[in-house]
Amino acid sequence: MIYNIEIYFMLFIIYSVLGWVMECTLGFIEKRKFVNRGFLIGPYCPIYGVGVVSVSLLLNRFSENLIILFLLSTIICGILEYFTSYIMEKIFKARWWDYSNNKFNINGRICLETLIPFGFISVLVIRFINPWMFGKLYMIPQNILNYIVIGILLFYIIDCCISFNIILKFKNLSKQEKDNTEEITKKVKETAEAAIKKLNLEKEKLIEKINISRIRLMENEKYTRKKYTNKIKNQQITLVGTFKARIQGIDDKIKGYAKDLADKIAVIKENQLKLGKEIKEKFMKQSKLNKRLISAFPNVQQREYTRKKK
């Protein structure tokens, strides 16, 4: 079966954690106290993950031949452990393990006493544990597995960056002690705790600054709101006064127009009265004239003349 890179990465993380648990357990049995055998902050020993992935990729074809599988696994684990110890010592000027007091060792980096158990563990992993592990990992849906891998990978990269940066600051440790694991782990822990404490202080200061800024902002907001509220009220009063003055002016003009119209109507009425009075007087005069004519000429037939209205 072909396994993708996500499966092998999960295999690397799982066996790195299991290797860390095994190393811490052996350290506790030996020294009667907890010793973090990993050089990273997180609970994992990457050399175990790399070792299992390496033998899984290279020796899976020999899973049916236990003797060849055991011998090749022992050789691969020995080469990996030796060069890992050499490279880390050159980079960090410190050792995480030392087998100088064990028999059949090579420069204190590897020894037969540890390689044989690694060979047996590799046989168990390839023949029995890996098939079960692959089956369980392939039960996880691919999209969920991708999210899990991305999250763990980001955490692992951040851990490596922080741990390497801290360890590089302590690479001038005492060279009299060949196994510096406990000392380096302690310093890494202290440095990480100091960094976390510093971050918490910075966080508290930032929160305090934010609270102060928030209070000032609220005060400025209240002042600005009060200022513009008063300004709006004054503008409203001015605007209302202006509208009232305009309405009063319009009302005065209307009253003036009404008075002029009333005066004109009164003049017209007065003229009408005068005209009516004149017409009445003329009519009265004509009436008197008619009466005189009738009395003067009683035998003349009376004719009524009317003027037609056009």
How would you sum up this structure, described in words?
The protein has about 300 residues and is mostly helical. The protein has a domain of about 180 residues. It contains 6 helices and 2 strands, in the order H-H-H-E-E-H-H-H. The protein has a two-stranded antiparallel sheet with strand order 1-2. Helix 2 packs antiparallel against helix 3. The radius of gyration is 57 Å and the shape is rod-shaped. The protein starts with a helix and ends in a 14-residue tail after the last helix. The C terminus is likely disordered.
What keywords describe this structure?
310 residues, mainly alpha, 6 helices, rod-shaped, disordered C terminus
Quick gist of this model?
The chain is an all-alpha fold. The protein contains six helices and two strands. It has a domain of 175 residues.
Kindly, what is the distance between the CA atoms of the first and last residues, rounded to a whole number of angstroms?
Answer: 124 Å
Q: Give me the count of strands.
A: 2
Please tell me the overall pLDDT: 78
Low-confidence stretches: 304-310
| Helix share bin | over 70%
Provide the structure class: mainly alpha
- Order of SSEs, N→C? HHHEEHHH
Lateral strand order in the biggest sheet: 1-2
Q: Gyration radius, to the nearest Å? A: 57 Å
Shape: rod-shaped
- SS field, number of helical segments: 6
Classify the beta-strand content into a percent band: under 5%
Biggest sheet: strands, sense, closure? 2 strands, antiparallel
